[in-house]
Specification:
The protein is of the alpha+beta class and 357 residues long. It folds into 2 domains: 5-165 and 351-356, D-amino Acid Aminotransferase, Chain A, domain 1; 175-325, D-amino Acid Aminotransferase, subunit A, domain 2 (D-amino Acid Aminotransferase, Chain A, domain 2, Alpha-Beta Barrel), CATH 3.20.10. It has helices at 60-64, 87-100, 108-121, 197-201, 204-212, 258-269, 281-289, 327-340, and strands at residues 5-6, 30-37, 41-49, 67-69, 72-76, 81-85, 133-142, 154-164, 175-179, 217-219, 236-241, 244-247, 273-276, 293-300, 304-313, 316-319, 351-356. The strands form 2 sheets. Strands 1, 2, 3, 4, 5, 6, 7, 8 and 17 form a 9-stranded mixed β-sheet that branches. It is globular and about 60 Å long. The two termini are 28 Å apart. The structure holds pyridoxal-5'-phosphate.
Length: 357
């Protein structure tokens, strides 16, 4: 195991008002950095003061987008411990994304240990209010100064930390979603199952148009037939039809959400019928017509569970569960966050303690 070098800041910052945190606007005192060079591997792991760094204008990531990222959270529990939630599951997915864009794999166990050290050093940045958390953003960028298409020989891995506010400070707020029938986000064989910036670049224009029309998000359909449901782009999507939870399968164009995984495992444990299968948008609208569509909700690390109140497809809108949060979404949200904040016993081994306060 390589030695982790730690250089502490001599200008510690101040935690902003916990009611004003929002998402991803503030960063903690320190960050983790590590370099890669072909022949040498990942080297020089270090925790240093958070701040600017230098890069050549020719750095490959800026031109060809060879990059990956992750998003997970640390929580302050009700009994004053700092914990991570399924960190290795996120870091293993990091490597799945790396593989898709020819970025060399990281040593998951080593980076996990470095991450725990980083969070411990910045533990005072984990906000206290229930619903708040410390968002953890690991990412890798290709740094070769070369303006030509190839696989880079040098990379930088960073982990930065951001205290974030409660998503549902004012209670659940079911969202209006537009089913996108003009643009496509990803196609099987492409990058849809990698957490890579390109997928977000591909989704911006559709998102801007949907927002102008009054929608919060876009629900993507498969790019070939525009028929089968994929995901929301920041969240996976689940439907409750006739007491069965149905979600699209991981068939190559959607991200394997860790919250999706947690949600499916938990729902099964609760005795619900859970099915991963192709589901068409027609089927959802028909189920609604027959009165069989009970709930629709998204799953993602940021909001955990996000109820969908309305779906609009080709100008036709259906209202789900009277625009209210359904019992299944509520129960899953309460249980997942209950485990994360230490209010409910973790019988799954998902919680990973960083330190006691
Ligand atoms: C991160 C992400 C999600 C949600 O995944 P979680 O692991 O649950 O946070 C869903 N779709 C895409 C495209 C994503 O990048």
């Amino acid at each position: 195991m390589q030695d982790l070098v730690i250089k502490r800041t001599d200008k510690p910052g101040m935690m902003p008002d916990e009611d004003q945190l929002g998402f991803g606007k503030y960063f903690t005192d320190h960050m983790f950095v590590m370099d890669y060079e072909t022949g040498k591997g990942w080297h020089s792991p270090r925790i240093v003061p958070y701040g600017e760094f230098s890069l050549y204008p020719a750095a490959m990531v800026l031109h060809y987008g060879q990059a990956t990222f992750e998003g997970m959270k640390a929580y302050r529990t009700v009994d004053d411990r700092i914990v991570l939630f399924r960190p290795k599951d996120y870091l293993n997915r990091f490597n799945q994304s790396n593989e898709k864009v020819c970025i060399p794999p990281i040593d998951v166990d080593f980076v996990h240990q470095c991450l725990k050290k980083l969070v411990e050093i910045d533990k005072n940045w984990v906000p206290k209010k229930i619903g708040t958390s410390l968002y953890i953003r690991p990412f890798i960028i290709a740094t070769d100064p070369y303006v030509g298409v190839k696989v880079s020989d040098t990379y930088k891995l960073f982990i930065i930390l951001s205290p974030v506010g409660a998503y549902y400070a004012a209670g659940f707020n079911p969202v209006k979603i537009k089913v996108e029938d003009k643009y496509a986000r990803a196609v099987k064989g492409g990058l849809g199952e990698a957490k890579t910036p390109a997928n977000y670049a591909a989704s911006l224009k559709a998102g801007v148009e949907a927002k102008k029309e009054g929608f919060a998000q876009v629900l993507w359909l498969d790019a070939i037939e525009r028929k089968y449901i994929e995901e929301v782009g920041t969240m996976n999507i689940l439907f409750k039809i006739n007491d069965e939870i149905i979600t699209p399968p991981l068939a190559g164009s959607i991200l394997s959400g860790r919250t999706r995984l947690t949600t499916l495992e938990l729902a099964k444990d609760m005795g619900m019928k859970v099915t991963e299968r192709k589901i068409s948008i027609e089927e959802v609208f028909e189920a609604h017509e027959k009165g069989e569509l009970q709930e629709v909700f998204g799953s993602g690390t940021a909001a955990v569970i996000s109820p969908v109140g309305e779906l609009t497809w080709k100008g036709k809108t259906i209202v789900i569960n009277d625009n209210k949060t359904g019992p299944t979404a509520q129960k899953l949200f309460d249980t997942i966050t209950g485990i994360q904040y230490g209010k409910i016993e973790d019988k799954f081994g998902w919680v990973d303690e960083v330190t006691k306060l």
